[in-house]
Design brief:
Elements lengths: L2 H22 L4 H19 L8 H23 L5 H4 L10 H14 L3 H11 L4 H8 L3 H20 L1
Helix pairs in contact: 1-2, 1-3, 2-3, 3-6, 3-7, 6-8, 7-8
């Protein structure tokens, strides 16, 4: 199998991870698409240097989160953009269920977190262990536990407002 084929397989198997990371770190569909594409590009650039000392998903998360942080810093330098979704009012004919509303509310609150908190909570919601989150983020396992506890409290406070 060539490197290109191997890379394509990795992307196909892990496109959900890339989509979730790019969704959490952006506010509009266009920005999400741009970030998704940038993550794939950065993965391709660093694919040949992946040594296999960690799981492919761990490496992928690390590249995706670092790319997202860089993307956000660039966005801040470029100025404020207002997503078209915030300007247009769209009413669906179908009523949302309570669960869907709660999930939307949770993700709206997650988008308000700082860059590091978003990454940690995203990994936590993916079901990653504290060890895995620590390996991906570079923080200690204890620090992850402390940060997650504070993030949960912060989200709870924001949602109850």
């Amino acid at each position: 199998m060539t490197k290109e084929q191997e890379f394509t397989e990795v992307i196909k198997k892990n496109q959900g991870i890339i989509f979730k990371v790019s969704s959490v770190y952006t506010n509009s569909t266009e920005d999400q698409k741009d970030l998704y594409q940038e993550i794939v590009y950065q993965l391709w650039k660093s694919f040949k240097t992946f040594k296999g000392t960690s799981k492919i998903s761990t490496w992928l998360y690390r590249v995706a989160l670092n790319t997202s942080i860089t993307f956000l810093k660039k966005e801040k330098r470029d100025g404020v953009k207002v997503p078209i979704e915030q300007i247009l009012t769209y009413k669906s004919d179908e009523s949302d269920t309570i669960l869907e509303d709660r999930i939307k509310s949770l993700y709206q609150q997650i988008k308000k977190l700082n860059i590091i908190e978003k990454g940690i909570v995203l990994l936590y919601l993916e079901g990653k262990s504290y060890d895995a989150i620590a390996e991906i983020s570079g923080f200690t396992k204890t620090n992850i536990g402390t940060r997650l506890s504070r993030i949960k409290e912060k989200l709870k406070t924001q949602i109850l407002k």
